[in-house]
């Protein structure tokens, strides 16, 4: 199972986390070309920030709105805020690993004291979607407040529901289109388009087995 994923800005490259391992993969969107750049290897051996804070498994990774080189890493009931330099070396933005209930109080009060997946809302500069279990919500990171939800994924994301995704394990942005996203659930993935204005979702490419579309994940995801 894919636990978390993160598209590296400006590259056709993605980090994938599964269990206690991760890998970096270069790929051609919509094509069959892909190859492992590094990994799979232990999270502790490749991420100094996560190793220092004792991160064993990663639940979700999402870009920090407005900061292409920064990312939030959610693990258990905690999160880190880190950044990547041009050579993809990681360092802390905020040194502490904080409970979600401390840094995202409204999120925790809504029942999102852990996070399964998260993504930026296309067409905005401050908003994010969070997924946990069967529910999702839309969040404004500048205002530190929930804009709508929590609501069932099946009600707010009909294309995801039609793809058989009532839960989201991981999501990352398409390298070329900021309104298309790769969603993962169980042993399948799908590409979903999110309209920038209406925020309605549609199927960009139908759900497939991960094994059919991501050969680089065979044997460890």
TrEMBL record:
SMART domains: HX. Transmembrane segments: none annotated. It comes from Aspergillus bombycis. Hemopexin repeats lie at residues 1-50, 112-160, 165-217. The lineage of its organism: Eukaryota, Fungi, Dikarya, Ascomycota, Pezizomycotina. SUPFAM superfamilies: Hemopexin-like domain (SSF50923). This is Hemopexin. It comes from the Eukaryota. InterPro entries: Hemopexin-like_dom_sf, Hemopexin-like_repeat.
């Amino acid at each position: 199972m894919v636990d978390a994923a993160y598209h590296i800005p400006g590259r056709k490259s993605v980090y994938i986390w599964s269990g206690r391992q991760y890998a970096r993969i270069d790929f051609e969107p919509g094509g069959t070309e892909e190859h492992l750049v590094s990994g799979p290897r232990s999270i502790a051996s490749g991420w100094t920030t996560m190793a220092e804070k004792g991160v064993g498994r990663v639940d979700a990774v999402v870009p920090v709105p407005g900061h292409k080189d920064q990312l939030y890493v959610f693990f258990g009931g905690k999160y880190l805020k880190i950044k990547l330099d041009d050579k993809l070396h990681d360092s802390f933005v905020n040194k502490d690993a904080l409970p979600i209930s401390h840094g995202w109080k409204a999120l925790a009060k809504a029942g999102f004291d852990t996070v399964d997946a998260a993504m930026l809302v296309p067409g905005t500069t401050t908003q994010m979607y969070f997924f946990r279990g069967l529910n999702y919500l839309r969040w404004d990171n500048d205002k530190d407040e929930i804009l709508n939800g929590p609501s069932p994924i099946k009600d707010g994301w009909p294309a995801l529901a039609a793809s058989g995704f009532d839960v989201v394990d991981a999501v990352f942005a398409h390298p070329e289109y900021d309104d298309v996203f790769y969603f993962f659930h169980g042993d399948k993935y799908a590409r979903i388009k999110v309209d920038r204005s209406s925020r309605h979702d549609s199927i960009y490419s139908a759900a497939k087995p991960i094994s059919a579309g991501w050969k680089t994940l065979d044997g460890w995801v």
